[in-house]
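Predict the assembly for these two chains.
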Amino acid sequence: MRHGAGAKAFKVVVYIVCIFLAILSIFPFYVMVVNATRSTPEIQSSAISLLPSVNLAKNWAAIAGKTFDPVTGFINSMIVSCGATLCAVYFSTMTAYALVVYNWKLRQPFFTFIMAVMMIPAQCVTIGFYKMIYAVHLTNNFLPLILPSIAAPSMVFFMRQYMIPALSLEIVQAARIDGAGEFFTFNRIALPIMKPAIATQAIFTFVQSWNNLFMPMILLTKTERYTMPIMVSVLKGDHYKTEYGAVYLGLSLTVLPLFVVYFLLSRYIIAGVALGSVKG
Amino acid sequence: MKRKQVSYAKWGYIFSIPFVIAFLVFMLYPMFYTCFIGFTNNQGLMPPEIRILDDPLANFKATFTSPTFTIALKNTFVIWIVNFIPQILLALLLAAWFTSTRRKIKGQGFFKVVFYMPNIITAATIALLFANLFGYPKGPINDILISMGVITDPINFTVNGDISKGIVAFIQFWQWYGYTMIVLISGILGISPDLFEAAEIDGASGPQQFFYVTLPNLKTIMLFTLVTSLIGGLNMFDIPKLFLDGGPNNATLTTNVFIHRQAFSGSYMYNKAAAASMIMFTIIAILSAIIFFLMRDKDEARDYKERRQKEKEFRKMQKMQGKEGK
């Protein structure tokens, strides 16, 4: 009996803590979304409300037409994130393919080299990268934000780990006997087999690229080139000092796509985090 | 059947070309270039003529002795430690609860999704959102505290350096404990269930199992968490930059915000910024090396022990078999 009571008390404690943490996670976003629909006077009289109000259109009018432009930000972020994701997954899979399928002299040294490169922090590349891009007049261009993801060492590592058991060399041999070229075999046989791994990695690269602030902030100086996170920093400006409702609406708009992605794919995202940690 | 083998080795090189080129152009060259700039007079929008300084280490010395850099370095470590310790403790506790086999917690899937959510939301947005939540004189947090009777007058949180630092550390904690929890859960699930069964049979209680079975087997994965969190923490930029832009009075200034300030906001001191980033690179490399050394050393020692044990057993068996044979 006593054991049962103890178990019950334990569960009560666990649920209280978990529900508290869940509220802590949701609360800031809830306030953000609800206040996006409330007018500035409403927010000033009480900053928290459980129920939304009716001033969404008014807040939208207050944002639209000023520097903060969520539509442009959305399109720019989409171009950069999709480009970076495509480059990263395609070329990382290709590099992993080189490491798994072919038997070449430098295979092992190359793999060791990739492991070592994984340790280089972005920080010590920044200044030289900026100076280089500036010298070739590619600031305000999206290419310097997309092309570097061709060399994604940690993803190569992940893809290699996944490819070793998933892709049998006999299939590659069979394709060769049928007269398929090496690129054809890679594109038509290896890539489809790698789909699950590519999906997981694509989600993470996309989110990471979407959220990236440091590099885009340095390289993109024209407003019409701003990505979403830089658009957020515009909301800090003087135009929006007194427009509380509009600021909350702006913030909500910057994360709307992420919420959609997360609630559609949360299961895979969490599985991906767990998998990445075990493999990495 | 003997047939002339076609060598496909060259394709290994061909398929690695894109990676190697991108690496050389976008990582290796910029890295050496950054290092080089650190030794030069590369300042201002139109630098006169770039040359290595008479005292090549002048920028490094200036950065090291700059009081602002020292403050930034201290802040970065303080904010990281204040966020990491509660983060790993809470993540461990939750991971232990969620993996408990004797007391199944319902709704785990929901809790995991919710706890991890802040991690994928744009840090820039979160920083600005929190700046609004802690608004003064009217803001959600002030409203809650007043209505709960904790305070009578609204507090202007963001003029106080310690409170601001605390909020930055809290945001960091709040964004990352869910991630750490999922990593630790997958670590615990990777431990052989036999160990827990044996502990159960021996009558170990829940906490005993946690301290004597779970924790020792999580060492590697906890060190992994430590290293990744350390590298991320020392690169902290988005939250301190957009929350208060390093203020008030440099209380939330981190080294990355410092570097950004040196090179990109107003003053174009690329050489000083490059020197500061090389210093940070060195610090991160040394700390990671220390942690990796500790990790590798232990693993190898354990492997060595196991091998010795197995060899002993093998010899024993051989001896016994030999006897039987006779």
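Chain A has a mean pLDDT of 88. The domain at 70-234 of chain A is CATH 1.10.3720.10 (MetI-like fold).
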